[in-house]
Every structure is written in structure tokens, then in C-alpha cells.
Amino acid sequence: MMRTLASWLLPAILLLVGLAWSAAGGSERPDYARTPVLFVHGHGLSSADWRPLIEHLTQIGYPREYLYGVDIVPNTMANVPAATSVISPAADSLLAGAKTAAQRAGYRGEVPRRLDIVSHSMGAVSSRWYAAKLRPDLVRTWIGLAGANHGSQAACAFRDEASREMCPPFATNARTHGVLVALNGTDGAWVDETPYGLGLDRPGVPHIPADGTRSILYLTVRVEPDSWIRPEGSALLDGAGGVSIRVPAGVPVRETSPGNFLFEANVGHDPLLYHPDLMRLVAAMLAARD
Questions:
Q1: What CA–CA distance (Å, rounded) separates 182 from 41?
Q2: CB atoms within 10 A of CB 31
Q3: Is residue 41 within 8 Å of 72, Cβ to Cβ?
């Protein structure tokens, strides 16, 4: 969600810590068998917020050409237009660029034909629309970090189109929420929140199973308290998980329900992206299907 000027200070400090941590660990050679990763920022942010995580992943063997953060302009764009006009062409470009980079490097193995998505805040909604509604055949793993999956009452105070979408159906001052209803259903009409997912949906949900061409590992990470995702449980997804995650030693996280993780370090909504332990966790999540 939106960031104030004062809130830049802690992320800047954590960025320096994260980069120093990555540099201290050395760097692995690029592995072109890895799956490319597309990063989708949240409301009011930009691709720059992914630089620490991208740097960490290159240090552990991801080719830099396999990692790309989109810039949604304006960064208050509504979710469906963001998915169709920004995320979709960026995904196609990333896969094409990854193939070219692998061939240029002399890689003779099979180049991945699908990608992983790491999203944050409202970017979880636009990227989940892409994964669930547009190109489920191209998405292998989808990760939502402090995602506004079911909206956030904090968004109800703003008037831009994206915030209006994120004002959840259960809020007393909700205005419009068609995207959230399409992705999550309502109490009287449930839908599969994780179509083509590997996890188990709750009883009564009209399940859309994975098949030969579409299978997605959905994972979420949240923080509590979260000043931008209210209530924090909005970040959780029914039907997430389905693959065991090997959490690195010392990472302060707990899987509270299948595929839904609570990051227990004392860190806020935006600074989460800069936390060194979060970077290690995301790397482990991306490796879960390797």
C-alpha cells in the first residue's frame, strides 16, 4: 500500500543489511535450469522495492535475466488493467528473454516454459488475477507477501480506483468490490480462491483442480500487526499449499494453515520486503517444486 516519506528510512537500512548479507555469502554461478521469477509491487510502490530480493536470488544462482520486477504505471492502477496491460506482456517478455539468455550462455538443457510470481500487498490481487484468470498455464508458483487477497479496510479511506477495489465487501463503507468477489466469492457463493492449485480447498468449495497443463503452488506470507492489511487474515488463501516447504534454519516463520505462513519477526508491511530472513524464505518457497 502507500508509503509515507518517513517510512523510507527503515527499508533503506534493511536494504543495506540485506545486500551486505548476500555479499558475505558469496555468489553461485548462474543456473539456467531455474524458473524465471516475475515480481509485482503493491499500491504506491515500484520495481525498486524488489532490488534486495533480486540481488539475493542472483547471489544464490538465478541468472539476472531470469528476474524481473514490473512497474505498474500509475502505481494506483486498478487490478484487472494491471494484469492485462502490464503483468501479462511482462511475463511473455521475461520468458522470451530467459530463453535468449540461456541460449547465449550455451545452456543446452530445457529452458523453463513457465514462471514464478512473487507479489506484495495489492500486487497480490493483480498477479493472482493473471495467474487464476488469464494464464494459469504459465504460472508454476505464486507467492503473496502481505497480500491484500481479500481486500483491506485501510484502503477504504482512499479514493483512487485501485483503493476502491480493495475496500472489502465486509467493510461498512465498501463501495465497489467486483474483483474481490470474482477472486474470492462471497459467503453465500464460494468460489475456488486458488484455481488449479495443489492444495486442498475447504468443504463445499467448487474445486478447480490442477491438470496436465495448469498446476499452481499458492503460498502466502503475512505479518502481524500489519498497518496496511486490515484484518491481517485477509492475506490468507483457502486451498494454498500442497507442497512441503523446507524453511531455512533460523527463519522466524510459522505455517499456520497449509500454504499460509506468519512471519514472526518484528517488521512492518513494506520493510518486510527488505528483511534478510524473508529473502531466505522466498528462495526456499521458489525451490519447493524443483
A1: 21
A2: 14
A3: yes
**Cβ within 8 Å of residue 67, ≥6 positions away:** 36, 37, 39, 54, 57, 58
The residues that bridge with 222 in the sheet, in sequence order, are 262
Of 232, 210, 206, 208, the closest CA to residue 221 belongs to 232
First to last CA, the chain: 32
Give the confidence band of 36 by pLDDT, cuts at 50, 70, 90: very high
CA 171 to chain centre: 24
pLDDT, residue 27, reads: 83
Preceding omega of 30 cis (within 30 degrees of 0): no
Report the C-alpha gap between 192 and 206 in whole angstroms. 6
Contacts of 284 (CB under 8 A, 6+ apart): 245, 246, 247, 248, 251
Global pTM value: 0.92
Closest CA to 245 of 267, 219, 269: 219
C-alpha to C-alpha distance for 122 and 40, rounded to whole angstroms: 9
The C-alpha cell that represents 181 in the structure block: 468477489
Amino acid at 231: P
Q: How many CA atoms lie within 13 A of 253 on its CB side?
A: 29
Distance CA 130, CA 91 (A): 10
Q: Which residues contact 147 (CB under 8 A, 6 or more apart)?
A: 119, 120, 121, 123, 124, 125, 128, 220, 222, 229, 234, 235
DSSP helix/strand/coil, 232 = helix
Q: What is the pLDDT of residues 218-247, one digit of tens each?
A: 999 999 999 999 999 999 999 999 999 999
Which residues make Cβ contacts (< 8 Å) with residue 84, sequence separation at least 6?
Answer: 134
Of the candidates 19, 56, 29, 45, which has an alpha carbon nearest to the alpha carbon of residue 248? 56
